[in-house]
Design a protein that fits this description.
34 strands, six-stranded parallel sheet, globular
Length: 596
């Protein structure tokens, strides 16, 4: 293990050296000034030269767009969205060397007031955004932009005063003397808006660190003007209890014209101050939740519909829990990329070099790795159904509890692979195949005629089965009609087209299971677990599902409209209409019409 770390350090140092003086491939920016603006603070983070919050994000989430603005040439300005903000060029004939040629939009103001700006004095009236300023999107208690709009007129704290005020989702502000133990004080009062900047934020806005200028990493101020990235404060700083990754944390938050900042005392020092994802929040608000919805698995990606990292050199990038649908990594060189729990459906990694990537619990459904080189990749708990690995080379890959059903791997090469409880491309289980998927790399294809005939699969109809274990068995076209099954273990099996009509299923575990086209007509399911389960086209007509958990599942085209759902849970699940539950307030309840 020590030797391995040493080798990685040598590789990373060598890659950093290659960056010096090199003009990177663009992030999909049509305007080079956007790329230059991104590079100054965020290229050091992307390349591992700095440990701090992203100022913009790992890369743009849209191509360059043109949005209406009355005073701009032709009535439109160029903009591009990032996780943390929106870059914009309002006056294309301005001084490109000025730091104000590219600006941040006043997105926080628009989200708080509901007034979408389309000119210096022109606005489109909308509703204030009921979107959480920080933390998990589904947190029912965290302050929203609409919350923060209610406290803009409260007076400023005096410089040096301790910050001990809390705010809740309703906008109620209270004093909590116990917060004085954190020693956080107000700093300067900004004359333009009359609000005091919290000390940790003022320190961050005036901090120095590694930045990228004229082809080199140098030590300099992070912002050439302290208000460049944030704008002026529009609220005071307040403490709030906010869910982050499902865990409630105490943090200090303050909204500025362009961004909202958070300070989390429990974080490591370099991550105590972070910028919220106002760019993503605003884009969803302005374009009615994402415009357009992501393409469903199996469909093609439109150019520019995902972030673009093509040809780039990326050192230790972290994409944990990020949306990488339709992302482009073609010809990229990625060292120690962390893709844990990312949604990377239909992402393109063709001809990429991936050094020790972690695809732990990652959704790669329909992704492409044609000709890619993967050194010591981890595919643990990974959904890699229908992935194209044609011509790819794997050096010491680890496939543990992975799902490779339908993956194109027949022409891939493997050096010292490990397979544990993994669904092979042909639908068999590695554990029942001598602990390997080698020799089982052919796509199983569809059942003959696309449907099951009597006798095509094992027959359990009408049986009473107590705690049966089907893991590793072939269940394509299996017949469970009218069966009673208590605590059935269906993990990591291919049960495509299986028939569970009128069955009674108590606490079945369908983790990493293929149930495409399965029938659940009038079936009773008590506390079923559908974790990373493929249910494409499954029919639940007349079924009753009590406390079902859909986590990382795929319900595209499933028929659930006449089913009864009692206390369902949806987490990062593709709803029947092709949208994602996390983008729908954590539910598929209003998205049950199957996509055609």
């Amino acid at each position: 293990m020590v030797a391995r770390v040493g080798i990685v350090c040598i590789v990373v140092v060598g890659l950093v050296a290659q960056l010096q003086g090199v003009v990177l491939a663009t992030h999909g920016n049509a305007d080079v000034v956007f790329e230059r603006t991104w590079q100054r603070p965020d290229l050091p983070v992307a390349s591992g030269q700095a440990q701090r919050t992203w100022i913009w994000g790992p890369g743009p989430v849209t191509d360059v767009l043109h949005e209406p603005y009355e005073e701009s040439t032709g009535g439109e300005r160029s903009v591009q969205y990032y996780d943390k903000a929106r870059m914009e060029v309002t006056f294309a004939d301005g001084d490109q060397e000025s730091i104000w040629y590219v600006t941040n939009g006043l997105l926080v103001i628009e989200l708080m007031t509901g007034a979408m700006q389309v000119g210096d004095n022109a606005f489109v009236t909308r509703s204030s955004a009921q979107v959480n300023v920080a933390g998990d999107a589904g947190d029912p208690n965290g302050p929203t932009y609409a919350t923060m709009a209610t406290v803009t007129e409260l007076p400023a704290a005096a410089p040096g005063a301790g910050l001990v005020q809390r705010i809740d989702r309703s906008g109620t502000v209270s004093v909590d003397a116990n917060l004085a133990t954190y020693g956080v004080q107000a700093s300067v009062v900004t004359a333009e808006t009359g609000h005091a900047v919290a000390g940790p934020f003022w320190d961050f806005m005036n901090s120095t660190g590694t930045v990228y200028v004229d082809g080199a990493f140098v030590a300099d101020v992070l912002f050439q003007n302290p208000y460049f990235a944030t704008g002026f404060p529009v609220t005071e700083a307040y403490w709030a209890d906010v869910q982050v990754g499902g865990v409630t944390k105490l943090l200090l938050l303050q909204c500025f014209q362009r961004r909202c900042l958070t300070y989390t005392p429990d974080n490591a020092p370099q991550w105590q101050v972070e910028a919220g994802n106002v760019g993503l929040h605003y884009r969803a608000w302005r374009y009615d939740d994402g415009a357009p919805p992501p393409p469903p698995p199996g469909s093609a990606c439109e150019p520019g519909s995902g972030p673009n990292f093509a040809g780039q050199l990326l050192l230790q990038p972290s994409y944990v829990d990020e949306d990488l649908r339709c992302a482009v990594f073609t010809n990229a060189d990625v060292a120690q990329g962390n893709f844990t729990r990312a949604n990377a459906r239909l992402a393109n990694f063709d001809d990429a070099l991936l050094r020790q990537p972690e695809f732990v619990n990652t959704d790669l459904d329909g992704a492409s790795f044609v000709g890619a080189e993967l050194e010591q990749p981890e595919f643990n708990g990974t959904v890699a159904t229908n992935v194209d690995f044609s011509g790819a080379s794997f050096s010491q890959p680890s496939f543990v509890n992975a799902n490779l059903l339908g993956a194109q791997m027949a022409t891939a090469s493997f050096v010292m692979p490990t397979f544990v409880n993994t669904i092979c491309p042909d639908g068999s289980n590695s554990d029942s195949s001598g602990g390997t998927c080698l020799g089982r790399l052919d796509d199983p294809g569809d059942p003959p005629g696309g449907a099951c005939s009597p006798g095509d699969g094992p027959d359990f109809s009408g049986q009473v089965l107590m705690q049966p274990v089907f893991s590793g068995q072939g269940l394509v076209c299996a017949d469970f009609s009218d069966a009673t099954v208590a605590q059935g273990d269906f993990t990591a099996v291919n049960a495509g087209m299986a028939d569970f009509t009128r069955a009674d299923l108590a606490q079945p575990d369908f983790t990493n299971t293929i149930l495409d086209g399965a029938l659940f007509h009038d079936t009773s399911l008590a506390q079923p677990g559908f974790t990373r389960t493929s249910l494409v086209g499954a029919d639940f007509s007349g079924a009753t599902l009590a406390q079902p958990l859909f986590s990382g599942a795929n319900l595209l085209g499933a028929e659930l409209r006449s089913a009864t759902l009692v206390m369902p849970s949806f987490v990062d699940t593709i709803c029947p209409d092709g949208t994602n539950s996390d983008d729908n307030g954590g539910s598929c309840a209003d998205h049950l019409v199957p996509a055609t």
